[in-house]
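Propose amino acids for all 214 sites.
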């Protein structure tokens, strides 16, 4: 099982605080059945330090005993707009055309038009856009058809496993289950910030893994 969204890199965002915590997360991931992890630190304020993130990745690879790791990023839309689209080619998954995009949890359905322009831009550059945790977005919570529209645009939708316990913002379980019922999710990822999130991933896969679209 490939986990495409994890804050396992040590000391670069609000995930693992140090290498010891990263390795604890790695053991929890293995216990949950994960066989490959994409390391996706936040590209948003106040965390983004590109060089430090790559250094943290190299340190984890050296300590991981050969466990398959891939470098990636969780790219916040607002931060991408601040950086400029020329950064896109540095923020996709390494040696892959996948691009993990985080939208604003507070955005309205009308504001999603701005995201659609960015998504089309990314796709025109050859990237496969993965939308991180749509169950957190107010527009999707109010109207699940917003998620349907994103998939019709060619995006993949990724559920974050903590929805199983209500989610990071406390109201994600119901919209997540609705999207599973509608067959809109392509994958479940840990979105792990600490080792316990991998127990959520194992449970989410047991309960809803069969409802994935692909």
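Proposal:
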């Amino acid at each position: 099982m490939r986990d495409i969204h994890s804050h396992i890199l040590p000391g670069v965002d609000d995930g693992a605080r140090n290498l010891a915590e990263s390795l604890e997360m790695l053991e929890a991931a293995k216990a949950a059945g994960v066989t490959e992890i994409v390391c996706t630190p936040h590209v948003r304020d106040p965390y983004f330090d590109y060089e430090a993130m790559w250094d943290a990745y190299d340190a984890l690879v050296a300590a991981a005993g050969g466990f398959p790791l891939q470098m990636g990023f969780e790219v916040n839309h607002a931060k991408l707009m601040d950086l400029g689209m020329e950064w896109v080619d540095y923020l996709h998954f390494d040696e892959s055309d996948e691009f993990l995009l985080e939208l604003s949890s507070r955005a309205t359905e009308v504001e999603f038009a701005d995201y659609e322009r960015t998504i089309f831009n990314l796709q025109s550059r050859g990237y496969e856009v993965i939308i991180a945790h749509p169950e957190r977005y107010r527009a999707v919570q109010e109207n699940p058809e917003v998620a349907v529209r994103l998939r019709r645009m060619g995006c993949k939708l990724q559920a974050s496993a903590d929805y199983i316990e209500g989610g990071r913002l406390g109201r994600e379980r119901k919209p997540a289950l609705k999207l599973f019922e509608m067959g809109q999710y392509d994958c479940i990822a840990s979105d792990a910030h600490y080792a316990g999130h991998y127990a959520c991933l194992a449970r989410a896969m047991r309960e809803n893994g069969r409802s994935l679209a692909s």
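The chain has a mean pLDDT of 96. The first helix runs from residue 19 to 31.
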